[in-house]
């Protein structure tokens, strides 16, 4: 029991110290999951749209800001239907939102740019 008290006396302040230091630096573990990594890499690249994708954006009244800030940022990459292991430019299917998806986007992510190919309104 005495060892447990000494352990907790050191552990609790240590956790609080680490938490506050990492919180100030903006560190988080959420960027290490595959979904987050694909989205972050996609948003960091030059984004291009195919004519068919641009036409669907106009038909569904989706502007570029909504696409980047909501659909891509909060979307869910369906790795089962995507071709993530493709060598040159992996292709991904992104659904937004995760539960009861309303939009589905098909895009490829190359070294320098990301090309958005298809946009489907599901409901």
Features:
single chain; alpha+beta; 123 residues; five-stranded mixed beta sheet; DUF4258 domain-containing protein
Report the count of strand segments.
Answer: 5
DSSP strand content? 15-25%
Q: What strand line-up does the widest sheet have?
A: 1-5-4-3-2
* Distance separating the two termini: 60 Å
Number of domains: 1
List the secondary-structure elements in sequence, H or E: HHEHHEEEE
> Uncertain spans, ≥5 residues at pLDDT below 50?
none
> Portion of residues in helices?
40-55%
Number of H/I helices:
4
Mean pLDDT over the residues: 88
Structural class: alpha+beta
Radius of gyration: 20 Å
- Global geometry: elongated
| Largest sheet properties | 5 strands, mixed
What do you see in this structure?
There is one protein chain. The protein has 123 residues and is α+β, with helices and mostly antiparallel strands. It has one domain. The protein contains 4 helices and 5 strands. The chain has a 5-stranded mixed β-sheet with strand order 1-5-4-3-2. This is DUF4258 domain-containing protein.
Summarize the entry for a quick read.
The chain has 123 residues and is α+β, with helices and mostly antiparallel strands. It has 4 helices and 5 strands, in the order H-H-E-H-H-E-E-E-E. The longest helix has 24 residues, at 2-25.
Fold blueprint:
Layout: H1 2-25, H2 34-44, E1 46-49, H3 51-59, H4 64-72, E2 76-77, E3 91-96, E4 103-109, E5 113-121
Parallel strand pairs: 1-5
Antiparallel strand pairs: 2-3, 3-4, 4-5
